[in-house]
Every structure is written in structure tokens, then in C-alpha cells.
Amino acid sequence: MTELVSIASDRISAGISPLGAELWSLRDAQGGEYMTDADPAFWTGHAPLLFPIVGALQGGCYRIGERMFAMSKHGFTRTSRFELVDHAAAMARFRLCDSEETRAAYPFRFVLEMEFRAEGDCLRMVATVTNPAAEPMWFSFGFHPAFAWPLPGGAAKGAHRVKFAVDEPQPVRRIDPPSGLLLPDPQPAPVAGREFAPDAALFEADALIWDHLASRSLTFGAEGGARLEIGFPDTPMLGIWQKPGARYLCIEPWQGIADPQGYDGDFRTKPGIVALDPGATRSFRMDVRVVPG
């Protein structure tokens, strides 16, 4: 059984696995669980961190100059054990550094810290990437939390809505399910104004992907029931996904995206890649506010 690191405020509690610094549990004061049940019939993930890539690579490989490297979808962080470097009643901070193993797949030095704080009814998550080397590094980062669907409180699954902070009229992107690569043609979005009703049929073709999202926050929940207020001020892209029929909905703020089909460019010029100068840091925040029904 996985041993979780626990944090809590007077209104919420959370449990985090050191493997991947992955959020497994988020509960309200009444014990309602807002995270996935991780049913193995669908997907056993909870909230993996995506680093140093988001999504899949063309042929499972990428190029930097004349050098080729292989890396699996979403990178290696989700299967890496983080060190717990600070822990208090309402806070936990984890750290992952480069190693001989990571440099075989990703040739850059890095420090990735993941901090979780329970502040009243809000779980604040901040990922900070530091470049300790004397040369620039390039990377992408993404959150991948799977929230309970339906949320606790008794509202029907079909009553749940995703509501963006502002209108989102632009089309969405889709991926080719066998390869995981980004299809070239945008598709009509299911959003009417600021809102849409998630439905299993929407995910038969895998995730809905916004590669130029205007909003930096949204709500997920049902009228008269529990809801989550989710903020992601540092990430301009978003994926929403589930395995059709599962009891979760993944709401995934991203800085980065899968390779477009046929992409053969350098990793450093890939859409969504971040360049980080020597000694510099870059942080990505995701806030999840729990509003019980």
C-alpha cells in the first residue's frame, strides 16, 4: 500500500504520494473525496506531473541538434521518486533532481520542486523548475489531476458542467489516439459561451485540447451540488479528458503539447517549449478550491 504524506487545514485535507509527487486524495471537512477512485478498469493514475514533456513524441523520440533521445509519453517524472524536503501540518514540499538515469533521456540538469499547501478551503500546488547548469535548458510542464465525477454531494453525473472564466469560442485540437500525436485540423469546441456539459461521448476521440486558452480559471460541478474552483494562472493550454465511462474528469493545465503529426523539428523549437536560462527558475501554479454542496 502506498504511504501518503498528509497535509490539512481546518476545511480540507490532502494526501500526496512521494512517487511522482502525485496528489492522491483531496477531501472536505465532512470526508467527501474529490479525487478519482483510480478504478483499474479505466485508469490507475491520480494526478501525475508531466515533465519534461507534455503528451507524446513523434516515434517516441526527439532531436536536439544532431542528437536523438527517446522518452515515453508525458516524460519520466510520474514514475520518479521525489525527496520530501519540508513537511508541516498544512504544507509539504518535494524535490526531484536530475540523475544519470534522467540524463540518458533528457540531457539537461534540473531541479523540480513541488509544493502543496492547504489554505482554508483551497489546495495550492506550485511546481518550480530551476536550471542549475551553466547552459540553457528546454522543457514543458503540465498538471494532470483526475477529479471525481460526479463530485461528492449527490448531484447527478450528467448535471455537472465546466464553466470557464471568459468565453472560449475557439476550436479545440484533437490527437490521433494510436500515436498520441496532435492532429493538424482544429475541431469545433463543445463550449457554448463559457460553459459545456462533459459527456463520455466527447472523449471517444481522446482529450479535448485548447492550445490557446483565454481563461486562466474555471469551475467544475453541478448546480446545487459540490463544485471545484480551479485556477491556473501560469499555463496557456488545457486538456480535459477521461476514459469514456470512468468516474473521473481530468482537468489539465499545460505549458506544452504533444508533437504535431509529422513533426521533425528540433525539440527547442517545438510548440509550447520553455527556454530557461542558467540559474533561472520558472513556476507553475494550480489552485483547487473545494466548495461542498
| CATH classification, class level | Mainly Beta
Q: In whole angstroms, how far apart are the ends?
A: 31 Å
CATH architecture: Distorted Sandwich
How many structural units, i.e. domains?
Answer: 1
Radius of gyration: 18 Å
Number of strands: 24
Portion in strands: 35-45%
| Amount of helix | under 10%
Strand order of the largest sheet: 7-8-9-10-24-20-19-14-17
Overview of the molecule:
The protein is mainly beta. 2% of the residues lie in helices and 41% in strands. It has 1 helix and 24 strands. It has one helix at 100-105; strands at 5-8, 12-17, 22-28, 49-50, 61-64, 67-70, 83-88, 91-97, 111-119, 122-130, 137-139, 141-143, 146-148, 160-164, 175-176, 181-182, 195-196, 208-210, 217-222, 227-231, 237-241, 248-255, 274-276, 281-291. The mean pLDDT is 97.
Which key phrases capture this entry?
single chain, 293 residues, mainly beta, Beta-galactosidase, Chain A, domain 5, nine-stranded antiparallel sheet, six-stranded antiparallel sheet, 1 helix, 41% strand, globular
Could you give a quick summary of the protein structure above?
By secondary structure, this protein is mainly β. It contains 1 helix and 24 strands. The chain has a single domain (about 5-290), classed as Beta-galactosidase, Chain A, domain 5 (Distorted Sandwich).
